């Protein structure tokens, strides 16, 4: 029973929960970026490169063996087009994270540079100022 309570205490600590949320959101963000690269970014790049679709680029090392209309041995190929898509995914994700962190650092720096507001005058100072102003009149 003590081990279950200890595990529950561990799993419910703030850092663990925050990390879990970050991992889930990061996974979803990764899917969004992968879709962006595959469905939005790569088609125009493929057109610019003469209609090439990177995901289908591959180097065949061994052809498939077909006997009697049946595949006896599958083809062996290096799918470097998929690798190119994955590298582009990584670069976009890394750049997006860089921009977010750069923005956060800039906001934090501005917050640190902002001078603190002058302290409010005490009641005594306000009263003395009023007395001074009345004496001037």
Automatic annotation (TrEMBL):
SUPFAM superfamilies: Gated mechanosensitive channel. It comes from the Bacteria. Keywords: Cell membrane, Ion channel, Ion transport, Membrane, Transmembrane, Transmembrane helix, Transport. It is a multi-pass membrane protein. Channel that opens in response to stretch forces in the membrane lipid bilayer. May participate in the regulation of osmotic pressure changes within the cell. Belongs to the MscL family. This is Large-conductance mechanosensitive channel.
